[in-house]
Amino acid sequence: MRIAVCIKQVPDTAEVRINRETGTLVREGVPSIINPYDTHAIEAALSLKEKLGGTVCTVTMGPPQAEASLREAVSLGVDEVFLVTGREFAGADTLATACALSGVIKKIGADLIICGKQAIDGDTAQVGPEVAEFLDIPHVSYVKKIIEATPESIRVERMMDDGSDIVEASLPALITVVRELNTPRLPSLKGKMNAKKAEIKKMGAAELGLPLEVVGFNGSPTQVKKIFTPGPRGGRKKFEGSLEEQIDALVNELVEKKCL
Amino acid sequence: MPLKIDKTKCMGCGACITVCPYDAIVMEDGVARIGEYCQLCQACLSSCPEGAIMEKKDEQVAPVEDMADWKGVWVFAEQRDGRIAPVAFELLGEGRKLAAARGAELCAVLFGAAKSEAQELVKWGADRVYYCGDPIFQGFTDEPNAELLSRLISKYRPEVVLAGATAIGRSFLPRVAARLKTGLTADCTSLEIEAETGNLIQTRPAYGGNIMASILSPRTRPQMATVRPKVMKAGRYEPDRQGEIIEVDAEGIRARTKVLETMKAQDDGVNVNLQEADVIISGGRGVKGKEGFEMLKELAQLLNGTIGASRAAVDEGWIPYCHQVGQTGKTVCPKLYIACGISGAVQHLVGMQSSDVIIAINKNPEAPIFSAATYGLVGDLNEIIPLLVKKLRERKDGK
Ligand SMILES: Cc1cc2nc3c(=O)[nH]c(=O)nc-3n(C[C@H](O)[C@H](O)[C@H](O)COP(=O)(O)OP(=O)(O)OC[C@H]3O[C@@H](n4cnc5c(N)ncnc54)[C@H](O)[C@@H]3O)c2cc1C
Ligand SMILES: Nc1ncnc2c1ncn2[C@@H]1O[C@H](COP(=O)(O)O)[C@@H](O)[C@H]1O
Known about the structure:
The complex is a heterodimer of chains A (260) and B (399). Chain A contains seven helices and 15 strands. With 260 residues, chain A is of the alpha/beta class. Chain A has one domain (2-214): Rossmann fold, CATH 3.40.50. The termini of chain A are far apart. Helices cover 26% and strands 27% of the residues of chain B. The radius of gyration of chain B is 24 Å and the shape is globular. Chains A and B meet through strand 4, helix 3, helix 4, strand 9 and strand 10 of A and helix 1, helix 4, helix 5, strand 11 and strand 13 of B. Adenosine monophosphate binds next to helix 1, strand 6, helix 3, strand 8 and helix 4 of chain A.
């Protein structure tokens, strides 16, 4: 089986701070990481390969620095890595991203495509299903367990808001995965050596046969009009007195606010 | 839109370099220059004290010509097990305002429930309902929903299409957007019509809720958005309201996925659909164990609420993952959120900070959760919660 994993390099949002005075993001010294969900996607692909044989490749679209995340993927055991990069891809929204990623996947071929549920910078969770639509293949979102995979089909458990479903999809298919699925492995020493010398296959729109109107800013229907920081919450109230008095005051407030 | 820096205005202060998430801005000869790594995220726009960073308007692609043909606001009414999800009524409430601002109709789309449910959508405010009762919609699969909704949109051309930002809406709506090659904004918390252009201003949290972004889709139609449950207010229910039901068929619609089994998560009778809960009592590492959560459940029962948890509590195995709130769990927005023994790490805050009223109970007065809270109680939760339960009981019995 040939498995393609889409990974995104993202700023570690846990480290992002807001400058309350200027209302802006402070990115100084914030490290870039592989989107945490995507590390579970890589793990799922590697363990399927161990069971079924085949190859695992990893695809990312991003600036040249995104190469680092692909090398990290190699250190974990990924066989082949592809970097979609070039000025023409800048400013891509989810549609233009999905267009570019599906372009690569068409070129390199895959029976199963695994994406993270969402990227922690944009949090949209849209790229996976959009890639599936561009490729005209079925998809299953929020997979928390892979029950069975054969060359023809895959059976998974997916999370829903009020429980979960067991779903079967014919292959080729795309799944997006949640963190419950597995525990990602650490790189091996040999993997780290491989990562250093791994060949990163770079592709631009021309190599993918994609017209410039469909990628990057030009291919993006959505545009960011404004970015702002949510205002601080007003009205925090502390209560005075003994614990009992405080709780009485709280209950009264809640009654007044019609919370009870 | 591409960005440029007005060299005559730039003072070389470097504020933009600090905020750029992609390290795309460099300083050259004392002025900033936007380099090739720019992803056009616009984070730098508001950072410049001189207002030197601007959008290059001239490079904007011309709008499509038939834009004016697209009219009306549509709400995809999600159903589970034949019951319409409450977020559909909220969207009809919001959709009515948008439709009024555009002088247009408000329609709903319902796939799979009984036909009588379509009438309910009329009573909640829809002027017209496109309804399909085909059994293919019984268990949720993405392709049939995407296929039929795309067909209807192409045929009737609504200007705006909204769905709940639920597991279902967020899974299949991207397929519709990809098929129609239009914009989709995920997980919106506010919608507004831009008066001059009629564009829909879609506001959503990003970077784990650290920033808000307002998004437009000015060049394509329809403008599509998924909207968080519990954020919009449902309209008025009018039992006598009349509207049109248009039945559509699902001819030729296929599904390459099949739902084999559906399991409802019932955790000791506690509802796990946190996104629809009005009251959530959430526990963290400070709750100290399974028994602690039993105490929270008692409080939850009294308030008709459900149980949430921080990742630390889930990792300890005190409560299943389906209760986890935060960046890697669920995003919730109840009327009342009580955080018990939770420190308030940013990954937790992003999942609950838009709740109406937040109460923090923590013995450490410095805990960051207090800065997100409406009310704070500093003290041991093992004293506070039983006392709170007692007071609430007394109040209940007294009435
Ligand atoms: C990529 C990533 C994703 C993450 N996603 C999430 C997520 O989705 N959700 C999430 O919650 N976390 C998430 N985390 C983890 C997060 O950073 C914190 O580690 C976690 O939220 C801490 O949980 P806590 O507040 O329960 O525990 P702690 O930080 O240990 O806090 C416990 C609190 O309880 C108080 N306390 C102790 N005893 C008592 C008592 N008797 N009475 C009153 N108060 C008491 C203490 O003062 C303390 O403030 C994520 C982390 C990463 C890196
Ligand atoms: N630029 C990208 N390159 C590769 N994969 C991506 C990219 N953007 C998104 N993805 C994939 O799509 C998933 C969902 O991303 P998003 O829709 O941005 O939340 C991620 O977890 C990745 O698997």
